[in-house]
Design brief:
- The chain is mainly alpha-helical.
- It has 3 domains: 65 residues; 44 residues, no CATH class; 41 residues, no CATH class.
- 72% of the residues lie in helices and 0% in strands.
- The chain contains 8 helices and no strands.
- The chain is flat.
- The C terminus is likely disordered.
Length: 163
Amino acid sequence: MHVRRVLKLFLLLPIFLLFFALIGWAVMGLWNWLLPAIFAARAITYWQALGLMALCWILFGGLRGRRPSGGSWRHGMRERWGKMNPSEREEFARGLRSKWHDMRERWDKMSSSEREAFLKSLPHFWQDILDRWGRMTPEERDEFVKGLRSRSAGGAPETEWKA
């Protein structure tokens, strides 16, 4: 029995390591192929790709322990929903709705001046960026984009954000 476990370890460990190395190479290749072209991001090394894989494993997949054999949370939710009578279902659905879920109804009931006042009252980061972008000349926009690209490529910024 002990010999069988050792044999499995010596057979499966190299296969696992090879698979892990190939996945790291694939992550590096995809990153270096897509992200610099799309987002002007820096290229990464093989070791950075392995670190990125480890980070993603920790954040999105690892260290959670064994999942229960009862299936996903959707299965449990369907089971719970099936045991409710219609009034319990309505109460449950009402509890799920919050001020954000009924925003469309509130928005439809607002007049155009109320909508404008509502939008102006929001601390809207993207609106600030769009306003600044709108005040730039095409040449300033080109310089700004070049500065972002050089900053992401590791160079010194060519221009700073103009308020």
